[in-house]
């Protein structure tokens, strides 16, 4: 049986770009499918959505349009077809920052991470304009309900479905109280525009000399805690995890660079606690994703990432001023 997504893209290209060929790009847990399209020595990326879309509520297109006003390094949109559920965009190449960091020098690595941090600050500098315009990026945020949902996702898909842990009511109540505490504390933090998934697999190395980065996969951009994008950049998808001292140096760089982008200064001690709390929340949510992909979707390749995530949760908890004994107990940390 012919792949319906491939068939839809083939029909679209035959109609709009005769002679073009395409090849699937390895995807992630997303329902979107990506393809590299070649047409007369030109390359671009096709994103094929599972269903048709209307432009006025297509988050990737609207976020791209907004970010380009601020010269953020997002791909140019070449063509869009809502009825086909297809977007053609600029091709940033094949070099993910995560893979490039494995082979570059320590000096180049430091430069790349600092450039990536500057992009976070640039994204955050769009917040006031986004609020004034009532942009789509401000319609969603990491409020208490959203954060609680993510932490419940961890409980259901990691503890219940993957680990098959049976928890008595008293223990469950204590666990839920701690998860709610995380959601509440983070939901009360000041919020700015965030990418939402700013790890090294969503940052492309467009050019090595001089180094130029590009960002992708920002369709879920929204308002979130100020530390939100810095956490995945510094702790996720890195072949060699950064040590605590190096993370602290990059936190200093992030905080000291805020004034250059017209952003309010933040007390370091306050920010550091938020950073590790955000790290804890993201890691718990990621455990839920790994549990779902392994136990429900049958994608067992995600299981290999669970031990490292548990280690990161243990580190985060050790750094936070608040205590979470029930989370540690249920995860056997």
- SSE pattern: HEEEHEEHHHHHEEEEHHHHH
Q: If you average the pLDDT, what whole number results?
A: 94
- Proportion of helical residues: 40-55%
Number of domains: 2
Estimate what percentage of residues fall within beta strands. 5-15%
CATH architecture of the largest domain: Alpha-Beta Complex
Shape: globular
**Low-confidence parts, pLDDT < 50 over ≥5 residues?**
none
CATH class annotation of the largest domain = Alpha Beta
Helix tally equals 12
N-to-C terminal Cα separation, in Å? 47 Å
Reported by name, the CATH topology of the largest domain is Aminoglycoside 3'-phosphotransferase, Chain: A, domain 2
Major sheet = 5 strands, antiparallel
Query: How many individual β-strands?
Result: 9
Which radius of gyration do the C-alpha atoms yield? 21 Å
Describe this structure in words.
The chain has 333 residues and is α+β, with helices and mostly antiparallel strands. The chain folds into two domains: 4-90, Phosphorylase Kinase, domain 1; 97-330, Aminoglycoside 3'-phosphotransferase, Chain: A, domain 2. The protein has helices at 4-16, 59-68, 97-103, 106-124, 127-133, 144-162, 169-187, 230-235, 244-256, 268-296, 306-319, 325-330, and strands spanning 21-25, 33-39, 42-48, 77-81, 86-90, 191-194, 203-207, 212-215, 222-225. The strands form three sheets. A five-stranded antiparallel β-sheet has the order 1-2-3-5-4, with helices on one face. It has a two-stranded antiparallel sheet with strand order 6-9. A two-stranded antiparallel sheet has the order 7-8. Strand 2 and strand 3 (42-48) form a beta hairpin. Helix 6 packs antiparallel against helix 7 (169-187), helix 6 (144-162) packs across helix 10 and helix 10 runs antiparallel to helix 11 (306-319). The mean pLDDT is 94.
């Amino acid at each position: 049986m012919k792949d319906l997504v491939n068939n839809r893209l083939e029909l679209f290209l035959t109609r709009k770009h005769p002679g073009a060929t395409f090849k699937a790009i390895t995807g992630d847990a997303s329902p979107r499918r990506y393809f590299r399209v070649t047409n007369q020595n030109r390359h671009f990326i096709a994103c094929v959505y599972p269903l048709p879309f209307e432009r006025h509520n297509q988050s990737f297109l609207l976020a791209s349009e907004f970010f380009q006003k601020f010269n953020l390094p997002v791909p140019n949109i070449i063509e869009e077809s809502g009825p086909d559920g297809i977007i053609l965009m600029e091709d940033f190449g094949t070099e993910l920052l995560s893979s490039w960091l494995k082979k570059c020098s320590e000096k180049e690595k430091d430069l790349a991470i600092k450039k990536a941090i500057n992009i976070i600050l640039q994204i955050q500098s769009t917040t006031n304009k986004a609020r004034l315009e009532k942009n789509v990026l401000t319609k969603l945020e990491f409020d208490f309900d959203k954060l609680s949902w993510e932490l419940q996702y961890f409980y259901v898909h990691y503890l219940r479905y993957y680990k098959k842990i049976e928890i008595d009511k008293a223990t469950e109540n204590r666990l839920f109280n701690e998860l709610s505490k995380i959601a509440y504390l983070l939901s009360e933090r000041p919020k700015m525009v965030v990418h939402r998934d700013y790890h090294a697999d969503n940052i492309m190395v467009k050019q090595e000399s001089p180094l130029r980065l590009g960002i992708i996969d920002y369709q879920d951009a929204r308002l979130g805690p100020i530390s939100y994008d810095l956490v995945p950049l510094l702790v996720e998808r890195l072949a060699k995890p950064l040590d605590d001292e190096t993370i602290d140096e990059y936190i200093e760089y992030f905080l000291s660079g805020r004034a250059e982008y017209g952003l309010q200064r933040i007390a370091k001690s306050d920010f550091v606690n938020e950073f590790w709390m955000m790290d804890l929340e993201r890691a718990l949510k990621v455990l839920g994703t790994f549990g779902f992909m392994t136990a429900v979707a049958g994608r067992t390749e995600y299981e290999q990432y669970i031990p490292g995530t548990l280690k990161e949760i243990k580190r985060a908890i050790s750094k936070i001023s608040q205590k979470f004994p029930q989370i540690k107990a249920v995860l056997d940390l």
